[in-house]
Amino acid sequence: MSLSIKNLNKSFGDVSALRDINLSLNQGELAALVGPSGCGKTTLLRSIAGLEHPSSGQIKINERSVFDGELNESIAIQDRKLGMVFQDFALWPHLTVYENIAFGLRARKDTKDLDKRVNDALAQVQLASFAKRFPSQLSGGQQQRVSIARAIVTKPQLILLDEPLSALDAVLKDQIQHLLLQILKDNQLTAVYVTHDQAEAMSMADKVVIMNAGQVEQFDSPEAIYHHPKSEFVAQFIGKSNRLPSPQGHAFIRMEKLKPHAAANDNDLQFEGSIINARFQGQHYLVEANVAGEKWHFFASQRPTPGEVISLYCAPEDIQRIHL
């Protein structure tokens, strides 16, 4: 197991930031931590890194214990064999690209084949010709690629990424996302990735950790979380789900599963709603409607009129039921 977290807790005074966290990752897997602000995802990342001291529990990296609350043992951050990538790049402005990447190797006194390792890392992030430049001479996307190269050059056992793409525009974000995934795959690196972007988490991760109020609501594959949420919070937090009252618990229907105006099959379920508003989104309109006292959302190819009564249909198997 590349990363194992058992019964991890962290409190700040009377405030419980992490409560009984249990996670495990295999070699080469990427886990995305997502959840609302203050849910504990950054505290969890900092605890794995050694920047926070948990109150109890255990953390193992590659079967080696780096924190054990029962034994009161905690390995220093520099000895955990981690690579880290931050939102703000965290590059030394007075050092060249080459020296920024080499910095971690020199600090560890791990200088064997240093030149080859730095140049290999530069090649992987497609910056081979930028070695002598300074951070101020680079774009935001290029600076983030340097920070990725710095993280992988030490051959870490685990990479921690704290919202690494949030400072980039949409085009750059997409480019760096693909590059990062390729680098992780090529090097068989295990990674924990904090993001506030649900789409980013679902498209990049092998496993997604949905956190809420310091707890893990669900830890599963992106597909399982999207199609089989285990709690009302997960169903509402990931994507847009429309809620149906259900005596056995709660039931939800994803907005993309709703078909306005006409049923596709004879056994489709029918709902009636009153249009509240519609927003043009390029390929379609995102429509908000009142259905049985609930605000529902769905896609439509044409703009409906506010106040218009509309029929919506969905297949029975598309209803997601959560039993309380």
UniProtKB/TrEMBL annotation:
Alphabetized CDD domains for the sequence: ABC_Carb_Solutes_like
UniProt keyword Transport present: yes
Keywords of this entry: ATP-binding, Cell membrane, Ion transport, Iron, Iron transport, Membrane, Nucleotide-binding, Transport
Gene3D superfamilies referenced in this protein's UniProt entry, alphabetically: P-loop containing nucleotide triphosphate hydrolases
Protein name (database record): ABC transporter ATP-binding protein
One protein family per Pfam: ABC_tran
Domain of life of the native organism: Bacteria
Entry GO CC: membrane
Domain ABC transporter intervals: 3-238
GO molecular function, one term: ATP binding
GO annotation, biological process: quaternary ammonium group transport
